[in-house]
Design brief:
The chain has 155 residues and is of the alpha/beta class. It has helices at 16-28, 39-50, 69-80, 94-103, 114-123, and strands at residues 8-12, 32-35, 59-63, 86-91, 106-109, 151-152.
């Protein structure tokens, strides 16, 4: 697989304002952004990563409205296998938040502001060349974001 020049972010969100603005904001910050248009796109991405056809994106930003439990389980398995990616789940309910926390994934509550998501993605550390993930010591660190961000990081 080839080495990337810029960190890659995969975005799959249903909320219209976030879906319109987030790719442009992240691209202006120096990320290559791939947008998932449908659940099928996310399933295909996860399959190609599992089969080692493509390298995992550095960051996956996904809304709970566009991801199934099976896809969450696949993401968790990839993270457990030390696939170097950071996953941010945007949740609309406490149940989804509890599921994300139980899986060790980072999450924001809806309505998520573009700047809140941007801050979390920037703080994941990919722009300086470091590749972190959802596994290991990374979970023990809390993200420092503005007071309006309802971010949970699992210890």
């Amino acid at each position: 697989m080839t080495t990337r020049c810029r960190p890659e972010v995969y975005v799959a969100v249903a909320e219209p304002a976030l879906r319109r603005a987030l790719p442009d904001v992240l691209e202006s910050d120096g990320f290559d952004v791939t947008e998932g248009a449908a659940r099928v796109d996310l399933q295909e991405l996860l399959w190609t990563v599992e089969e080692e056809i493509v390298e995992a994106p550095d960051v996956i930003v996904v809304e709970d409205a566009v991801i199934s439990r099976a896809e969450l389980t696949t993401i968790k398995r990839l993270c457990d296998e030390d696939t170097p990616m950071f996953v941010l789940l945007i949740v609309g309910s406490d149940e989804s938040a509890e599921r994300a926390a139980a899986m060790g994934l980072h999450f924001l509550y809806m309505p998520a502001d573009v700047d809140d998501v941007r801050t979390v993605v920037q703080n994941a550390g990919f722009l300086n060349g470091a590749r972190t993930s959802n596994s290991g010591a990374h979970h023990r660190r809390r993200h420092r974001a503005g007071p309006s961000v309802r971010l949970r990081s699992v210890a």
